[in-house]
Write a structure and sequence with these properties.
Blueprint: E1 3-8, E2 15-18, E3 24-28, E4 34-40, E5 43-50, E6 57-62, E7 69-73, E8 78-84, E9 87-93, E10 101-106, E11 112-117, E12 122-128, E13 133-139, E14 147-152, E15 158-163, E16 168-172, E17 196-200, E18 207-212, E19 218-223, E20 227-232, E21 239-244, E22 250-257, E23 260-265, E24 271-275, E25 281-286, H1 297-317, E26 321-322, E27 336-341, E28 352-357, E29 361-366, H2 371-374
Parallel strand pairs: 21-26
Antiparallel strand pairs: 1-29, 2-3, 3-4, 4-5, 6-7, 7-8, 8-9, 10-11, 11-12, 12-13, 14-15, 15-16, 16-17, 18-19, 19-20, 20-21, 22-23, 23-24, 24-25, 27-28, 28-29
Length: 375
Amino acid sequence: MAAAAIHQFAECITCHAWSPDHSMVAFCPNNNEVHIYKFITDKWEKLHVLSKHDQIVSGIDWGRSSNKIVTVSHDRNSYVWTQEGHDWVPTLVILKLNRAALCVQWSPKENKFAVGSGAKSVCICYYEQDNNWWISKVVRKKHGSSVTSVAWHPNNIFLATTSTDGRCRVFSTFIKGVDTRGSQASTSTDWKFGEQIAQLDLSSMWAFGVRWSPSGKTLAYAGHNSMIYFIDDVETSPAAQNLALRDLPLRDILFLSERTVIGVGFDCNPMIFSADETGLWSFIRYLDERKVTTSTSRASQLSEALGKLYGQSKQATSSDSVEPSKPRGGAHENCITCIAPLRKGNDTVVKLFSTSGLDGKIVVWDLENHMDITK
């Protein structure tokens, strides 16, 4: 089994993030607080409780370079936390929202962060030196419903979003005075702030968990209709692939490399997807291998037989691939809602990552001995 460590921190965990050196983890135990734990002498000890929010904390991100923590909450507020000595000092961010903030992510250069909200908008927040505060510019009137996830392109300009209107969109977030125009010719800085670069209408249901590949050439996201979508060359001529899942939908995904993706969600077990040399994506296997008991073997055989019949009928009417069925259960006992990489230095291939879910667990997965996965 690839699960290197399983930690039961709470009854339920909404989201989590790691410190730059991976010695501390911050998570929300499904309330208005953020708990920070550190691994000391063979056990995890609670060091801090960040309790500035009034409602449930829905997003956390910990900057690798700045060591700043950004949090968002259903109370429509965001805070940037800076460590001063042994304390974490919060700074309020002006979001201008009339609905809950749902997700947050630092940009690659960590000079901006994006906040998705239930107000059908995205806030791009940056620090204004003159007034010594964090302010935001809002991308409005582009989404038809709540923004469920955000993902920064490696160029620090493009931002991808997913929404409960079923669409994935890519915007420009170029802010004069914050972003600089490169000396080389680049189309990313030619777009104005808030200008929509692409809109992908691939899903008929809610969309979640958007991510870019390390190079930014491929975009992937999940649909609540048990589908995962892969799109190449989003800016110029988008080419999409749809992959149908046999079981329950995904909630979040992570690129381990250019050709390998991990998906997590309601099946409580990370799923591995890979692209071949031609760029065709397919389901490989579940990461958490489980043994099926004798008492359930016949039921599993019947389920597999029905699954094959269903799969054949789907393929007869659609060109989408359909992956095989698999019994649920393992390291996680409830829906996995968050996945975070544990990168070492400037490694482009992720071999360590963690997942958290509604069972209150944070599971660390080690793929060091699974080289066939990370290739």
